[in-house]
Amino acid sequence: RLSETWFRLYNVNIRKKVYFWRNKFTTMEKLIPFTINDLAKVTHHRNGEIKFGEKMITLPKDKELSLFLKECEAQYVLFGIPEDIGVRANFGRPGAASAWDCAIASIANNQHNRFCKGSQIIVLGKLDTSEEMEAVKELDFTNIKDRKKFSDLVEKIDKEVVHIISIIVKAGKTPIVIGGGHNNAYGNIKGTALAKGKPINAINLDAHSDFRILEGRHSGNGFNYAYEEGFLKKYFIFGLHENYTSKNVLHILKNIDDRVTYNTYDEIAIRKEKNFENELSKAFQFVNNDFYGLEIDLDAIPNIASSAMGPSGFSVEQVRQFIYHFAKSKNVSYLHICEGAPELGEEKSKHLIGKLIGYMITDFIKGKSSFHQKID
Q1: 135 has pLDDT over 50
Q2: I want to staple 82 with a disulfide (CB 3.0 to 4.6 A). Which of 100, 153, 240, 344 is the partner?
Q3: Residue 121 pairs with which residues in a beta bridge?
Q4: Residue 44: CB partners within 8 Å, gap ≥ 6?
């Protein structure tokens, strides 16, 4: 496993390349900016009310991204990754590509008030994944010959996510990323680590470890790849489901429990061997000694349309408490909400995924705000 010393040496060279890369590709060809007109289309105006969509900020056409981010006072940058290639490569059900459109339509219609303000958010836009999503249509994830092609497509998306996240974090902003599959955790971690100049920690609320073997990139091994490559320092998996964690993964985790550890949903919610609030504190202490990413996989919530939807898990209220708790720190560096798949839900309730993501985002912002109010 790669050491912090290696990372620092690697980072000296890579930062020069990243700097060149940022300045060479200022057009951000793979970013589809969300415009003021796009915002107007999804905002439902009503007399006597002010919606987020009327106050959120978009990237001006004539502004270079990194310069605009540094000059803008808003702290949070909303970014979508509409893909489900990593999910397909992990034998999951496709559909996560639809979460971004559903989420932004809901977020735009939150009320702008004293509890949370839309003006705190820059809506950056979404990654252009059309080429990769078109290519995956010709592939069969059950065909061994196609496995390498799936992995290559995920790696292409990884590079773009790393690029955009590093720019956002380097500008002193906090990314709020809406996936997409959990494969994008790798890009979030690596991009943040490069911008910070050192490995970061991560806390992941998830039914699965996503620490599977390094068999080619997919949604089930993003954290392991980030760990092996030296970008992920410490990792806590919160609420692991015992029925869906392999003996091999448990063995791997046991051998590195000083840096990668977990609790299970079963021991907290079923056998009551551990207390939810106490586990929040324990996990917080584990990751809060350095910068960390906050990862939320919607398959941790029962009956929420996702690639690995299940009947058992933490309640929506518990997940919201979890986000608020971990947002109250100067070290939390991004929020990633993934695996939501509105198109897998019932036709009449597809909008509920967007509403759920909207709640989570405002909980995150309120948590961060409460921390800053304390130190002020």
Answers
A1: yes
A2: 100
A3: 76
A4: 51, 109
Question: Quick one: pLDDT at residue 372?
Answer: 62
Which residue is associated with the tokens 């980030």? 226
The pLDDT, as a whole number, for residue 23 is 42
pLDDT in tens, 202-243: 999 999 999 999 999 999 999 999 999 999 999 999 999 999
User: What is the CA 239 to chain-centroid distance, rounded?
Assistant: 17
| Length in residues, the chain | 376
Tell me the backbone φ, ψ of residue 144, rounded to 5 degrees: -60, -35
Give the whole-angstrom CA distance, residue 263 versus residue 169. 29
Asked whether 319 and 269 are in contact (CB, 8 A), the reply is no
184 neighbors 295 (Cβ within 8 angstroms): no
- 374 falls in which pLDDT band (50, 70, 90)? low
- The three-state DSSP-derived secondary structure of the chain is CCCHHHHHHHHHHHHHHHHHHHHHCCCCCCEEECCHHHHHHHCCCCCCCCEHHHHCEECCCCCCHHHHHHHCCCCEEEEEECCCHHHHHCCCCCCHHHHHHHHHHHHCCCECCCCCCHHHEEEEEEECCHHHHHHHCCCCCCCHHHHHHHHHHHHHHHHHHHHHHHHHHHCCCEEEEEECCHHHHHHHHHHHHHHHCCCEEEEEECCCCCCCCCCCCCCCCHHHHHHHCCCEEEEEEEEECHHHCCHHHHHHHHHCCCCEEEEEHHHHHHCCCCCHHHHHHHHHHHHCCCCEEEEEEHHHCCCCCECCCCCCCCCHHHHHHHHHHHHCCCCEEEEEEECECHHHCCHHHCHHHHHHHHHHHHHHHHHHHHHHHHHC
Give the pLDDT of residue 346: 82
